[in-house]
Write a structure and sequence with these properties.
Blueprint: E1 2-8, E2 19-22, E3 28-30, E4 36-39, E5 46-50, E6 57-60, E7 67-71, H1 89-106
Parallel strand pairs: 1-7
Antiparallel strand pairs: 1-4, 2-3, 2-5, 5-6
Length: about 110
C-alpha cells in the first residue's frame, strides 16, 4: 500500500474527496478530510485523479514511494493572484482590463 496526499496546485491546501483510480488494476479510493489516501500501485502504473472543481489529471508512477499530487483548478479565477500595489502600472492595467471586459460584456448587438 502506498500513501499519498492531494493538494491544490496554487495554494498547497489539502483536497478532500478526490477520487483516485489506478488505471491498471482499476482499484479506487478517495482522499480523506486531510487530503490523504492509500492505494496499491506498482512502478509504471497510472493514477487518475478526479475532484469537483479541478481538472481531471493523470500521474504516471515512476517511484513507489509516498505520493504528493497537485491538482489544477478547473476555473482560472480559483487561482490566487498576487496583490497589486495601487498606483503601479500593473495595477492600472489590471483595472483597465477588467473595466474593458465589463464594457464588452454589456454591449448589445445590433440587429442587421
Amino acid at each position: 500500500m502506498m500513501k499519498g496526499i492531494v493538494f491544490h496546485k496554487h495554494t498547497n491546501t489539502r483536497i478532500k474527496n478526490a477520487g483516485i483510480c489506478n488505471t491498471r488494476s482499476l482499484e479506487r479510493t478517495s482522499s480523506n478530510a486531510m487530503g490523504s489516501f492509500d492505494i496499491r500501485i506498482q512502478e509504471g502504473d497510472t493514477l487518475q485523479i478526479t475532484c469537483e472543481g479541478y481538472l481531471k489529471q493523470e500521474f504516471w508512477i515512476t517511484k513507489t514511494e509516498n505520493l504528493v499530487l497537485y491538482l489544477e483548478p478547473a476555473v482560472p479565477s480559483l487561482v490566487p493572484q498576487a496583490p497589486q500595489k495601487k498606483g503601479s502600472f500593473f495595477y492600472f492595467f489590471t483595472f483597465l482590463s477588467k473595466s474593458v471586459q465589463k464594457i464588452k460584456g454589456s454591449v448589445i448587438q445590433r440587429k442587421k
